[in-house]
Design goal:
mainly alpha; globular; 59 residues
Length: 59
């Protein structure tokens, strides 16, 4: 069977740089809502929640 380019799975987005993730975490910690950060900067609320959780881990 021939593959149609439109049916190919899109490549995932490149990860956000560590400095960007840290800035978003800091903004969230001072009270900015993940939904607000989503509108302003682009990462999903789930990504932001994941970054906050990862930042809380020791090490």
């Amino acid at each position: 069977m021939f593959r149609n380019e439109a049916s190919e799975v899109p490549k995932s987005k490149r990860p956000y740089p560590a400095e960007f993730r840290q800035q978003i975490v800091e903004l969230a910690r001072v009270g900015r809502a993940p939904e607000e950060l989503l509108r302003e900067f682009g990462p999903t609320a789930q990504s932001i929640a994941n970054w906050i959780a990862q930042d809380a881990l020791p090490g």
